[in-house]
């Protein structure tokens, strides 16, 4: 559909991913990011805590950014690795409430990925063919919105078919509604997305502080996240107040 599109874009970020049993942090479903956009750990639970042990399955991503001038040299886009290959980047990351080295070593399997995306394309539709999900807009997973965006795509496409029938016009309506806005989100994620907040802390104090309010006041933090949520369509109040994208029981006629 877009044969002249530039190659896959790799900005130098390498991710290692795994799951480890652990105690959920803060609310029990909190998403936690530590470090800076160039050297960080992200973690969040993906199961309920076990009733006996209190441990949930914690999904984690450890990430560093390296010089990308030579391109990705590992060959494999999904390589199983040992913890010894990368854990040294996070030596000393023990905060009492979270022991990062222990969490990394507690994983049964660990996989290495380059963080990649593609430049946005001007349209996802060619006649009676439409792209959705990563095929339409592969993006950096800095906002945890890759899978959720694919769900949004499918819902909007379904609503367009309800409105216009199984026609090329329905595909055009879907493309018109999403392509430009999601293309902007692809580029926003390339610029660190919500993790840009960690960059601000790092730039202002090197990540060392006693009172976060003296580094980035709450109002500034909230405004930063509000801008990202608005761009990504993640404003809770707006979502909760909106009618269903596809009304319950709706069916395509004919």
Describe the 3D structure:
The protein is α+β, with helices and mostly antiparallel strands. It has 2 domains: 109 residues, D-Amino Acid Oxidase, Chain A, domain 2 (2-Layer Sandwich); 133 residues, no CATH class. It is 33% helix and 20% strand. Strand 2 and strand 3 form a beta hairpin. Helix 3 runs antiparallel to helix 4. The two termini are 29 Å apart.
Which value, in Å, is the CA radius of gyration?
21 Å
| Mean pLDDT across all amino acids | 90
Number of strands: 8
Strand order of the largest sheet: 2-3-4-1-6-5
Derived structural class: alpha+beta
Outline: globular
Looking at how many chains there are and whether they match, the oligomeric state comes to: single chain
Helix/strand order, N-terminal first: EEEEEHEEEHHHHHH
Q: Note poorly predicted spans.
A: none
What is the number of helices?
Answer: 7
Give the tally of structural domains. 2
Strand content: 15-25%
* Distance from first to last alpha carbon: 29 Å
Helix content: 25-40%
Biggest sheet character: 6 strands, antiparallel
Gist?
The chain has 254 residues and is α+β, with helices and mostly antiparallel strands. Helices cover 33% and strands 20% of the residues. It has seven helices and eight strands, in the order βββββαβββαααααα.
Comma- or semicolon-separated keywords:
D-Amino Acid Oxidase, Chain A, domain 2, six-stranded antiparallel beta sheet, 8 strands, 33% helix, globular
């Amino acid at each position: 559909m877009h044969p002249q599109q530039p190659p896959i874009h790799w900005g130098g970020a390498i991710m290692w991913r795994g799951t480890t049993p652990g105690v959920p942090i803060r609310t029990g479903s909190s998403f936690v990011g530590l470090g800076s956009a160039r050297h960080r750990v992200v973690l969040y639970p993906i199961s309920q805590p076990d009733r006996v042990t209190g441990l949930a399955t914690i999904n984690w991503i450890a990430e560093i950014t390296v010089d990308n001038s030579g391109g990705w040299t590992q060959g494999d886009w999904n390589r199983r690795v040992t913890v010894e290959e990368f854990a040294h980047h996070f030596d000393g990351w023990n905060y009492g409430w979270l022991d990062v080295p222990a969490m990394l070593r507690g994983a049964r399997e660990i996989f290495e990925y380059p963080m990649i995306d593609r430049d946005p394309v001007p349209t996802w539709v060619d006649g009676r063919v439409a792209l959705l999900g990563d095929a339409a807009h592969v993006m950096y997973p800095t906002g945890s919105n890759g899978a959720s965006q694919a769900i949004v795509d499918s819902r909007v496409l379904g609503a367009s078919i309800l409105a216009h029938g199984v026609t090329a016009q329905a595909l055009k309506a879907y493309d018109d509604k999403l392509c430009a806005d999601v293309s902007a989100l692809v580029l926003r994620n390339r610029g660190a997305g919500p993790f840009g907040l960690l960059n601000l802390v790092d730039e202002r104090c090197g990540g060392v502080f006693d009172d976060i309010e003296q580094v980035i006041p709450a109002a500034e933090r909230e405004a930063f996240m509000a801008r990202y949520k608005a761009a990504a369509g993640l404003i809770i109040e707006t979502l909760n107040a909106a009618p269903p994208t596809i009304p319950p029981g709706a069916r395509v006629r004919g």
